[in-house]
Amino acid sequence: QVRLVESGGGLVQAGGSLRLSCAASGSFRRINDMGWYRQAPGNQRELVARITSGGSTNYADSVKGRFTISRDNTKNTVYLQMNSLKPEDTAVYYCNADITSWSRSLYDTWGQGTQVTVSS
């Protein structure tokens, strides 16, 4: 099984920046796509950004131009650089990874979440 551990959340003023990290550990054949999602109170979990193993990315319209997703395949880690933060970015941010197991089965897994709070 794979474990995802997020870090880097916190409290920041509007206009500030934060960098989230998510490291995968465990036994697996391959990590495929990785991504970040967020969930604000009373809202459904929504996609923030995703990145393929080859580095192709896609973003939610609400974060385009402000957030950047990247990954280091040698460290099995995905990052989310968040700039020009707004109060509406306040949420719990979750890391997600699509995994190919040693038996070649496919599954996805989630981290425990990290709180991001942006004050106005």
Report on the structure:
The chain has 120 residues and is mainly β. It is 0% helix and 59% strand. It has no helices and eleven strands. The strands form two sheets. Strands 2, 4, 5, 6, 9, 10 and 11 form a seven-stranded mixed beta sheet that branches. A four-stranded antiparallel beta sheet has the order 1-3-8-7, with no helix packed on it. The radius of gyration is 14 Å and the shape is elongated. The N and C termini lie far apart (40 Å).
Task: Give a quick summary of the entry.
The protein is an all-beta fold. The chain is built from no helices and 11 strands.
Write the layout of secondary structure elements.
Elements: E1 2-7, E2 10-13, E3 18-26, E4 30-39, E5 46-51, E6 57-59, E7 67-72, E8 77-82, E9 91-100, E10 106-110, E11 114-119
Parallel strand pairs: 2-11
Antiparallel strand pairs: 1-3, 3-8, 4-5, 4-9, 5-6, 7-8, 9-10, 9-11
Describe the structure using short key phrases.
single chain; mainly beta; seven-stranded mixed beta sheet; 120 residues; four-stranded antiparallel beta sheet
Structural class: mainly beta
How many helices? The count is 0
Low-pLDDT sequence parts: none
- N-end to C-end Cα span: 40 Å
H/E series: EEEEEEEEEEE
Fraction of residues in H or I helices: under 10%
Shape: elongated
Strand content: over 45%
What summary fits the major beta sheet? Answer: 7 strands, mixed
Output the radius of gyration. 14 Å
